[in-house]
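Repro:
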Amino acid sequence: MSLSAYDKAQAEADAKLIRIYEEESRIFKDLQWHEETRDYQWVLFYGLQALDVYSTHRGLKYDCIREGNPLLGDRPTVPHMITHKTIFLAPIWMLQNEGIYTKQEINLYNSMSGVVVYNNFRLLERAKEKCNKR
């Protein structure tokens, strides 16, 4: 074995020991820098997505209501809306247990979805009073 090979192996072993020592001696090693999401937040997230599809479907039964998402067209069917949600929410679903999303982020997503669902039901109530069913 050459002297340089020995030095490289020794340097790598020393670096590994130093990393282990630094990790063990960190003052704040148990401190989490962000709060992880809770299960109820994910249940709420997916529940709001289902309510969005439901409220949109009910609203589209009236002639004065059309879909606001340009990717779906004016009058998408329920299968189209579910497919759209599945495609665009798949990355979130696949990463939800990886610790990537924070409690604050999922709260923001839920707040935005809640506003959308609220608006859908508000428009539905107005449509019942002023519009005709298709």
